Amino acid sequence: MHELGVVFHVIDEIEDLARQNNVEHVNSVTLQIGTVTGIIPSYLEDCWNWAVSKQENMVNCRLIIEKIEAITHCEDCNQDYNTIIYGKKCPHCESENTYLIQGNEFMIKEMEVV
Amino acid sequence: MGNIRIIEVKQSVFASNDKRAAELRNELKEKKTFLLNVMSSPGSGKTTTLTRLINILKEEFKIGVMEADIDSDVDARTVSKNTGVEAIQLHTGGMCHLDADMTRQGIESLESDDYDLIILENVGNLVCPAEFDTGAVKNMCILSVPEGDDKPLKYPLMFEVSNFVLINKIDVLPYFDFDIEKCKENIRYRNPMADIFEICSKDGRGIEEVAEYIRQQIYDWRR
């Protein structure tokens, strides 16, 4: 998909934050990624390893990925369920009057720096 | 070497792009310029459809076109040859989508500063362009019959972010297992607000209605 484009966006953000915080080197970056973002972590890591090698203050910077499970809420029966298994249709009452509560996050959580 | 420390960020990766896109939209509002972002798969008939729409709309509006592609300037040349309006090619340098900054650079490299309508033909792909807000006022998606009526189910985000969808190549409907009512149902399942048009960019069917719709959108934006 577009993992490389996304990695460039993350690195731009990190570079901005590094400048603002007088950082010499970024050791690691922790991302939180929802399971229905369509981002594939192993692809992301490959792109990451290539892209950080080009950044002077990010060489060998580790990428830590925390997964956020996708959960959907049903407005008709008021119950929550696993989006990956059941999709848009509520397994409790078969309603499609549902919305995603979490799972499409793509956040920079924190960075370890020197 | 200093001490190791942790900086808490807690910020969406798309946050800065979203912010830049909103800034761009505000500036366009001030200038009364309507930016239309056009997305679709490769080969869905984007360039042909746009050529027809532009030839109708250019009578009333000053139009500029930005063709985004990974490489080549085929589309920009085609559009400017067939419509006479200014068209520039944006190269994304290998990227599969345009973001707000790239869109702004494109707008700044257009010749004039007083367009009524700028059309951005995004990279042909139903996944990545949907993720990044370009700063456009409205998103238009073109889906063509040979692609299948199930595409809105397979590419949910594209249809969620599209304000209106054109179903193109309806002339070949008899030759494909494409259920047009099912397709509309699938689009509305993803986006109940989406307006849907049936067109054939080859013979021009339905194009007039879409042009009228875009005309109304431009009037609304200028208010």
Description:
The complex is a heterodimer of chains A (114) and B (223). By secondary structure, chain A is α+β, with helices and mostly antiparallel strands. Chain A has a domain at 3-69 and 102-113: hypothetical protein PF0899 fold (2-Layer Sandwich). Chain A is 30% helix and 32% strand. Chain A contains three helices and six strands. Chain A has helices at 3-20, 41-52, 83-86; strands at residues 26-34, 62-68, 71-74, 80-82, 98-102, 106-113. In chain A, the strands form two sheets. In chain A, strands 2-1-6 form a three-stranded mixed sheet, covered by helices on one side. Chain A has a three-stranded antiparallel sheet with strand order 4-3-5. In chain A, helix 1 (3-20) crosses helix 2. Chain B is α/β, with parallel strands linked by helices and 223 residues long. Chain B has one domain: Rossmann fold. In chain B, 40% of the residues lie in helices and 22% in strands. Chain B has a seven-stranded parallel sheet with strand order 4-3-5-2-6-7-8, with helices on both faces. In chain B, strand 3, helix 3 (74-83) and strand 4 form a beta-alpha-beta unit. The longest helix of chain B is centred in the N-terminal third of the chain and has 17 residues, at 15-31. Chain B is globular, with a radius of gyration of 18 Å. The termini of chain B are far apart. The chains are: A alpha+beta (114), B alpha/beta (223).
